[in-house]
Design goal:
This protein is 24% helix and 18% strand. The chain is α+β, with helices and mostly antiparallel strands and 246 residues long. It has 2 domains: 73 residues, DnaJ domain (Helix Hairpins, Orthogonal Bundle), CATH 1.10.287; 103 residues, Sandwich (HSP40/DNAj peptide-binding domain), CATH 2.60.260.20. The strands form 4 sheets. Strands 1-2 form a two-stranded antiparallel ribbon. It has a two-stranded antiparallel sheet with strand order 3-8.
Length: 246
């Protein structure tokens, strides 16, 4: 089934200004938002259709491509090529994970001294209908682990530094023989770090991080729906061994 013309979806002329496009989208979003039309598949379809149209027509580059090539100029399903992304790829999920994504590095390298990305955090944000349709700015407060400023994340007391683990020789792993087999296991003394702290930092007690309460301002885009996400990179928990925050 072919898509409707985006200008037709929003009910505006092709020479409509940005302000006219925004006004038309807000009217459509307010009218067909799922929170106002519970159980209506037709309203849900029109809401998604208007959101898709607005995403393209509110972006000058996408609008230019659409005006020149139609849907083929902005839809990845037409022809090959990568890049780009959908509305949800861009804005993530307002009501789910709010602080980034991804995982730790792997591979066959030794675990010792590997930099690990900090853990992601999740914050559930509640919006009323007007905020969801028109967009808004919200302040959120949460507690997270941040790098200890006293020791810089090393966990060692100022003037000292972690020492190489004598059990694994700094590898972070030890070999254990079981009959004819030899397997690698995480070092029980340094727990895979390759170093041990003999004189811990008094501020963080050798952990390298401390608890801190943070307040952030989150800009919520127009037309979000339940299940959408927003990512704030670098605002999660502190990384390990110099790794970035989540």
């Amino acid at each position: 089934m072919s898509k409707r013309d985006y200008y037709e979806v929003l009910g505006v002329q092709k020479n409509a200004s940005e302000a006219e496009i925004k006004k038309a989208y807000r009217r459509m979003a307010m009218k067909y938002h799922p929170d106002r039309n519970a159980g209506s598949t037709d309203a849900e379809k029109k809401f998604k259709e208007s959101k898709e149209a607005y995403e393209v027509l509110s972006d000058s580059q996408k609008r230019q491509a659409y005006d020149q090539f139609g849907h083929a100029g902005v839809d990845q399903s037409f022809g090959g090529g990568g890049g780009g992304g959908s509305f949800h790829d861009i804005f993530g999920d307002v009501f789910g994970d709010i602080f980034g994504g991804g995982g730790r590095g792997g591979g066959g390298r030794s675990r010792a001294n590997q930099a690990y990305r900090g853990a992601d955090l999740r914050y559930t944000l509640e919006l009323d209908l007007e905020e969801a349709v028109l967009g808004c700015e919200k302040k959120i407060t949460f507690t997270t682990n941040v790098t200890c400023k006293t020791c810089g994340g090393s966990g060692a007391k100022e003037g000292s530094k972690p020492e190489t683990c004598t059990t694994c020789g700094g590898a972070g792993e030890v070999r254990v023989s079981q009959g004819f087999f030899s397997i690698q296991q995480t070092c029980p003394k340094c727990h895979g770090k390759g170093t041990v702290i003999t004189d811990p930092c008094r501020t963080c007690n050798g952990k390298g991080h401390v608890k801190e309460t943070k307040t952030l301002s989150v800009k919520v885009p127009e037309g979000v729906d339940t299940g959408d996400r927003i990512r704030l990179s670098g605002e999660g928990e502190a990384g390990q061994n110099g790794g970035p925050a989540g």
